[in-house]
Design goal:
This protein has 279 residues and is α/β, with parallel strands linked by helices. It has ten helices and eight strands. Strands 1-2-4-3-5-6-7-8 form an eight-stranded mixed beta sheet, sandwiched between helices. The chain is globular, with a radius of gyration of 19 Å. It comes from Pseudomonas borbori. This is Esterase/lipase.
Length: 279
């Protein structure tokens, strides 16, 4: 029996006897990210970045100058995972600010969740020039969309490999970890209490998405199914859905189709703004 099967068996057995205890332990694991170091291919871009500290100790990296684009990585991710996109944005004349999410990188905290990610985006936006765009990957994408419901303003939003409904992800995770039904219910309730928001509200079907955007998702994503991107697209009238056939959950960030689509979206916004000024 491998270690994962042992964990599932333990959770399934003990979860019947002590569902709250098992759920509480799993909640802590679920919300405590590992601070993973950058890969070798990320180091050159990291060396070119300016490290800045925002309010409440939130840490970020900055490249280039021009209209501001704000980036948020995913769970256990890093700003430099956006390396190819960052280089293209700087070359196109944008200033890029990429956050270390709460409990990630050099930002403070031991635990995190999608609501804290969203609040970090709001805090950063309060200190930066008006945002040309907000771009988020995975949980970062979900938090970017949530942040718009909490007051974040940007000309456009780009969601990459993001879930449309947090409750589905919580149920899928707790089921994968072997929790029986009662323990799964306790797990969801504990996550909601810690995040300070009902999971049912973290659903794009209930959002007011009244800005242009781009949704990018790989068809072979093993962590967040492509159907999640379709659900976001259905709820977001002014959005384009870009399906990338092969990119998984992480490699999609370096896909030339994604980079081109983002740069084109921002160029179209800039052209529309210039046209309005000229009229």
């Amino acid at each position: 029996m491998n270690s994962m099967n042992w964990v599932r068996g333990f959770n399934a057995t003990v979860g019947w006897v002590a569902p709250q205890a098992v759920a509480s332990n799993l909640r802590r694991q679920f919300m405590t990210p590992r601070r993973l170091p950058p890969r070798d291919w990320e180091l050159p871009l990291l060396a070119q970045a300016e490290r800045i500290t925002l309010r409440f100790g939130l840490s970020a990296l900055r490249w280039g100058s021009g209209p501001t684009v704000l980036l948020m990585h995913g769970w256990e991710g890093r700003p430099t995972q956006f390396a190819e996109l960052i280089k293209a944005l700087v070359q196109a004349g944008y200033g890029v600010v990429a956050l270390d999410a709460p409990a990630h990188g050099r930002s403070p905290g031991e635990e995190a969740n999608v609501v804290l990610f969203a609040r970090a985006l709001l805090e950063a936006a309060g200190e930066l020039p008006p945002l040309q765009a907000v771009i988020g990957h995975s949980m970062g994408g979900a938090s970017a969309l949530l942040a718009t419901q909490l007051g974040l303003r940007a000309e456009a939003v780009v969601s990459i490999a993001a879930p449309s409904r947090i409750l589905t992800m919580l149920r899928r995770f707790s089921h994968y970890m072997g929790l029986p039904a009662r323990a799964r219910a306790h797990f969801v309730r504990l996550v909601e209490e810690k995040a300070g928001m009902p999971a049912g509200k973290l659903d794009v079907r209930h959002y007011q998405l009244d800005f242009p955007g781009l949704i990018v998702h790989a068809a072979d994503d093993p962590l967040v199914p492509y159907s999640e991107a379709q659900a976001i697209h259905e709820a977001w009238f002014d959005s384009r859905l870009l399906r990338i056939e092969q990119g998984g959950h992480q490699r999609v960030l370096a896909d030339p189709q994604l980079v081109q689509a983002v740069v084109q979206l921002l160029a179209s916004l800039r052209q529309a703004s210039l046209s309005e000024l000229a009229s």
